[in-house]
């Protein structure tokens, strides 16, 4: 049913496919690819195992479908950086978008983290291809801004890595963050203020 040559899916078929992907996201985020099973995905989706395998040929296909969708969403804010915009505001907008994604899509972030920790067996071609091309294009924009004196000198690659690390941490290590801060804190609101101050100080000219 996942082949594009198949007939258009009915409303019920679309709903069942969405249920499977939603259930699989919960299972993969908790257990990683190796620890997840079709039985667990079926239980989490509220469907039978044969029903799951009707829509997807294997656990691998479900995993790839989720990763592809997550990576597209994850990269969207990077694509929206405007070379003609104000450098500092464009970067801060990207930081805010990434922090909002950690708030709104924590399971997706953990799914991606599990994949990378395992050596990215399902994403190695994308990470070294499409992702690298997009990062290279963004790096070129940052270098142009620095060369023009519109942005403080900074290593563009490590600037991007730092944004990923400092924003995704709040999704991937949410339990640790909340345990250390204790009650009465809003981790992401506090992080937003801290990161805005950090990058303004680092990048302003």
UniProtKB/TrEMBL annotation:
InterPro entries: Homeodomain-like_sf (IPR009057), HTH-type_TetR-like_transc_reg (IPR050109), HTH_TetR (IPR001647), Tet_transcr_reg_TetR-rel_C_sf (IPR036271), Tscrpt_reg_YcdC_C (IPR013573). Residues 37-56 bind DNA. The keyword Membrane does not apply. PROSITE patterns: HTH_TETR_2 (PS50977). Signal peptide: none annotated. GO terms for biological process: negative regulation of DNA-templated transcription. Residues 14-74 form the HTH tetR-type domain. Gene3D superfamilies: Homeodomain-like, Tetracycline Repressor, domain 2. It comes from the Bacteria. Keywords: DNA-binding. This is Transcriptional regulator, TetR family.
């Amino acid at each position: 049913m996942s082949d594009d040559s198949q007939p258009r899916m009915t409303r019920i078929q679309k709903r069942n496919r969405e249920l499977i992907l939603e259930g699989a996201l919960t299972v993969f985020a908790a257990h990683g690819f190796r620890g997840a099973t079709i039985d667990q995905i079926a239980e989490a989706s509220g469907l039978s195992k044969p029903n799951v395998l009707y829509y997807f040929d294997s656990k691998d296909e479900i995993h790839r479908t989720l990763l592809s969708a997550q990576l597209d969403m994850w990269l969207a804010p990077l694509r929206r950086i405007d070379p003609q915009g104000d450098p500092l505001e464009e970067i801060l907008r990207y930081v805010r978008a990434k922090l909002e994604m950690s708030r709104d899509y924590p399971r997706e972030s953990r799914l991606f983290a599990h994949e990378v920790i395992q050596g990215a067996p399902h994403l190695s071609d994308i990470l070294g291809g499409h992702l690298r091309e997009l990062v290279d294009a963004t790096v070129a924009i940052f270098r142009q801004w620095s060369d023009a004196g519109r942005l403080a000198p900074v290593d563009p690659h490590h600037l991007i890595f730092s944004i990923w690390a400092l924003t995704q941490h709040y999704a991937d290590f949410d339990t640790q963050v909340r345990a250390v801060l204790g009650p009465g804190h809003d981790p992401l609101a506090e992080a937003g203020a801290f990161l805005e101050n950090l990058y303004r100080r680092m990048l302003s000219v």
